[in-house]
Amino acid sequence: MKDNVKSGALTEVTFFILLSVFEPKHGYAIMQFIEEKTKGRLVLGAGSLYGAINTLTEKGWIEPYGEGGRTKEYKITAEGRQIAEKELARLKELTATAAEIIGGGDPA
């Protein structure tokens, strides 16, 4: 997972994992969320997902949630929320610049 926090650029997978755990979810629900929200463009395998979950937990961007019964759930932390909000702002700026150049505005 090659996230560039200094410039604010996250990988798409990282960003979607953070978005998925704004509400607590277990691993399989995270995979379903990402596949659904990307209309099947991103499909994560269990190994990739759990490697990313471990990395994001180590960074302090997500954390385990609840009693940790049979399935472990995860939720976003305050720091993870800040990172996701910063990425959203970066993407908005990027698309606004692209729209200016390409001409994505109203043709009026």
Would you write up a description of this structure?
By secondary structure, the chain is mainly α. It has a single domain (12-97), classed as Arc Repressor Mutant, subunit A (Orthogonal Bundle), CATH 1.10.10.10. It has 4 helices and 3 strands. A 3-stranded antiparallel β-sheet has the order 1-3-2. Strand 2 (62-65) and strand 3 (73-76) form a beta hairpin. The longest helix is centred in the last third of the chain and has 25 residues, at 78-102. The chain starts with 11 loop residues before the first helix and ends in a 6-residue tail after the last helix. The mean pLDDT is 90.
Low-confidence stretches: none
Percent helix? 40-55%
C-alpha geometry: globular
The end-to-end distance, rounded to whole angstroms, is: 43 Å
Order of helices and strands: HEHHEEH
